[in-house]
Amino acid sequence: RYPLSFNFWAKTTVSATFTSFIKRSLPAANGSTLYDQGINILIDNSNSLGIRIDNAVAQNGAIYPTSPAINDNNWHFMSVIIASNGTINLYVDGALTGSNTFGALNSSAGTFGFPSGNDGGLGTGQSSNVQMDDIRIYNRALSAAEIMALYNVTR
Fold first, then answer.
1. In what order do the strands lie in the sheet with 87-92?
2. Once rounded to an integer, what is the mean pLDDT over residues 43-64?
3. pLDDT of residue 39
4. Is residue 1 within 8 Å of 32, Cβ to Cβ?
5. I want to staple 59 with a disulfide (CB 3.0 to 4.6 A). Which of 36, 68, 96, 102 is the partner?
6. Neighbours of 121 (CB within 10 A)
7. What is residue 60's predicted lDDT score, i.e. its pLDDT?
8. Contact 115/127 with Cβ under 8 angstroms?
9. Residues 7 and 135 sit within 8 Å (Cβ to Cβ)
């Protein structure tokens, strides 16, 4: 399932609520879907683009940069790049804002979605207060130059 690149424009005034943009939940052994297993691309508690990784197979972790704030009611171009080696890079308006390597990520069956409202876990903020546009998902890790080019072409 990896590498993957998520690229989208978003506009919001939501503050410090862990509001989800895109989320991947993994099915639990009992058939339910657990919020804490998978990937959650969100607005973190410092009003920045963040990601939480919870992996029943191995790793748990997060990248919560402290800037730039993205809840200023302006459109921002956001990119989340997940490499096959578990390195995740976050970009806002073409600039790298956070990076970490988590090692091998769980690639078992799971679905990506766009949660709205309270989805029962981290990312419980009101996604209905977030506007998204020009959502692009690639099955490869885009380079920094490709992200900057997308930002410049789509703004």
1. 95-101, 87-92, 76-82, 4-12, 130-138
2. 74
3. 79
4. no
5. 102
6. 20
7. 65
8. yes
9. yes
